[in-house]
Amino acid sequence: MRLTMRDVVGTFLYLATGAVYWLFLAGSGVWFVDTPREMSALGLVAGAAAFLTLNLADTVDRTRTTERWVSGASLVLGVIALLLAGTTSAGVWLAAFMASLAVVWLMELADHTGALPHPAVAPLHGSR
Q: How far apart are CA 99 and CA 18, in angstroms?
């Protein structure tokens, strides 16, 4: 399959979130993200927007159930990172959340590019 404009927009949203997180880690001081709470909130909003952008018009979905579980786990990690942003473990939860966003994005791209086999097509075992 070929990538669509939705894939490009969703990828941009994921990569922009990753770039802001990278600047946040480097201490460069992005004007709208100064604390782990703000970074978690940005990740939740941008991650949800990117996920919805990639999934709203997805006509051929090879990994629907797996995507739902992984994106749900990512959402839970994001909420935990947001709730525990004032604690000493905030950085660990935020890092786990950002890593989960990357996994969701890579799953979406692998699905949309056709890199994953279609579940309706059974592999031919033993045929030559």
A: 9
